[in-house]
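During the no-cost extension, the postdoctoral fellow (Dr. R.K.) reprocessed legacy sequence entries with the updated structure-token encoder. One reprocessed record is reproduced below for audit purposes.
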Amino acid sequence: MSMDMSTIAFDKQVNGDAFSLKNIDVQFPIGGLSIVAGSTGSGKSSLLLAFIGEMTLTRGRVLLPTVDSRILAANDRKYRDVIELSNEGLAISDIAYVAQEPWLRNATIRENILFGEPYNRDRYEAVLHACALKPDLRILKAGDMSEIGERGVTLSGGQKQRVALARAVYSNRRILLIDDCLSAVDAHTGKHILMECLLNKTSLMQGRTCVLVTHHVSMCLPFAHYVVMMHKGSIVLKGTPKELQMQDGFPDALTEFQSSDTTSDFTNSDNGDNQHKPTERQQDDDDNEYTKDAINMLNDTKSEDEYTLERLQKIAEQKGIDPNSNLSTLQGILVKDEERENGQVKFEVWKTFTSVCGGRLFWVFLVISITASKNVHRQLLRSVVHATPRFFDTTPIGRIINRFSSDLQKIDQTAVDSLVNLISGITAILTTFVIVSSVIPMFIIAAVAILIAYICIGIYYLKTVRELKRLRANSASPVTSLFGEMVNGISTIRAFGAKKLYIQEALNRTCINNRLDYALWFTERWLSIRLNFLGLLVSFISAIFIFMNLDRMDAGLAGFLLSYATSFLSYTLWIIRSYSNNELNMNSVERVIQYTKVEQEAALDSAPQHKPPLSWPTKGDVQVENLVAEYVPSVPILHSISFSVKHGEKIGVVGRTGAGKSTLSLALLRFIEASSGRIMLDGVDISKIGLEDLRRNITIIPQDPVLFKGTIRFNLDPFSEYPEEIVWDALRRTHLVRESSIHSSSSVASINASEDSISDTETLAIEHMSGVFSSLDAEIKENGQNLSLGQRQLVALARALVRRSRLIIMDEATASVDFDTDDRIQRTIRGYEFANSTLFCIAHRLRTIIDYDRVLVLDKGKVAEFDTPYNLLQSKDGIFRSMCEKSGEYEYLVAASSGKGANKRVC
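Re-encoded structure tokens follow.
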């Protein structure tokens, strides 16, 4: 796999300039581990995207294993080893891609890992072990058969990355392109993945080429075959570790994004024959890599099939279910079948619809189809916006979109029209009945008999068509959901060569929807044939009655009656179809009403007796008392945890993946309500106040940053509450712009008279950097797609700097930035910007929080340790010390915690 080019341009606009890879000339060795390193925004992820064809090739060549798609169509898998990617009719082959933001399907964990490949039990078990997933699967109720929701919402960031990694490893692809899979996992999990998965020590990875983008260079370098270092879209250094060690510029280049003391293991190591052999200490770390429980889980010889079956049988016994019966109902189904009513539309639905139209005045204001749709839309929007996070975890986005699109469209455009048609049809047929019966009384007997036949046919028809229309309405949601899933994961799908798989899946879901349409047309034909027969029967009987009474009527009256009798057919057909359409429209109302009754979050506004002061919180003191939090009833994630934090303290929150760190941050913002216990902020129980009052005064910087389409100013200050100087200052302190102080006769408005360190005789000259901003009007595309993940995290951090809340929560907020940028950001955090703020920082990088005031160690949802980093390191059997020892940075961490480190960061 190689790349030889002058420029690869990519449509990634920042400030009007297209980001591009320039003068790339690299060839990765076959069968080994290659590392791609560099600072945030240097083009590492873009390099991998170029390999899978997601960038525009303007000059040069990208050489990859490819296959002629026409040969594939003929089921002949003869590969050509090296072919130009740009040739027509060629498709990438033998490549598995793991994106920096893990893309997962709305399916079970096993289905995500298999990704269309056949199930091989031995290989599957080996992959679970290599990716350190067994301990996580043991926690889940249904193991690897648990559904994970859209975008893997039920998994932590580290779990999502490892599932995506497992998908690539399980595949039979020879080349693995892995983008920063170690950023969201703790140190010992990261080392396990490196030793057991990324290196070709096992048969699972034997002979496979692995290209890894990572900031964890010190951990990976001793085992790498090839290293590429990038800066501003270009390769500044490349070669084997031994070759790079001989280059004068290598240590300085490495220090730019990785502290120099963390490179000592590499620079002093033997990069010859023993290059890929761990030292004795590393081997000891591997032996003690996990807790005893985790080791037992990793080494458990039971397969996931056996383990899941045993667990489900145990649950069946507890619930009094026959263990020999079908246990599928006990599995970890997250997304249940879409709601669908049975039988006739309930009176409550009709009552609700007429009430939103205006209640008793509905018949008077029938001509107004707008009041109803407006009120229904308002209720639906309010209900969905205020729904609990669990609702969005368990509800595919396609179902929500379906309610707001096709269902509301029917209510808007056809509901009242169909109702009017039904009423007019009933009026017309009654008029016909009265007219004909008044002239020919005997027609009453025949009409009643035929009417009974019509009713029987109509009831039989409606029972079928009602359910078919409900099924058709439900079948549209999976099509919408799959489309959104494909758009989000298009790079991964194309890199795996899974386009045909998804095209087939889209066709299958569309066919299900179309089959229901065909079934509806068939029922329409069935109805039409029978109604036509009855209509002709009415006309025939009417004609006989007219002939029998020719002595009492003239030709004009006979023709008049016969024309009305023949129209009886069209009116009855119109009535039944209009009523059927009303059933469909009421089904839309029914579906919308379902979503107006979903579980809601607490009230936005505080009750008068619990309204906090306008200046609340003034300090940021936090007390957590016996807190229990759970996503699913009776399945707690946090188990009666208690601790207190003083004003201005910087608290690091650590623990292995799944320990409950992110759950704690969600509980502080009441995205998860406490089942018991309470959280006090400045002496106020947060469960007593409105969500608006709480969340406006707390800032969270999430692991997956959310950016909005618009300008950088809008993203940092959407309500224009702060002056431009504060916004610029936040960008500067998060290193999204670089400032140079120059003397000028003009002055800069003071950001804060008591805090501003810039004199009135200085001004800020903003210097453009690669991939960052030079104007507050710089465009942010949807979801921040024109920025790297690290840059998006920095924008989220800048947003927190602008708000300057008294309580700030950082959830792996710098996981995707390089170590040097992270180090500078931590200096900013310890500076005056956050001096008056209490900070919770969830981090897997222990160097990030090693000189915080205290460290909270969570284990299995409980507080395992809580003390200063220095005191925790003195505990020989402590969890935190064990994590530090396994990080590969133990000496640095000890020195930093005691204030003796050369890189000690001072507030």
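The longest strand covers residues 2-14. The mean pLDDT is 77. The remaining legacy entries will be reprocessed before the final report is submitted.
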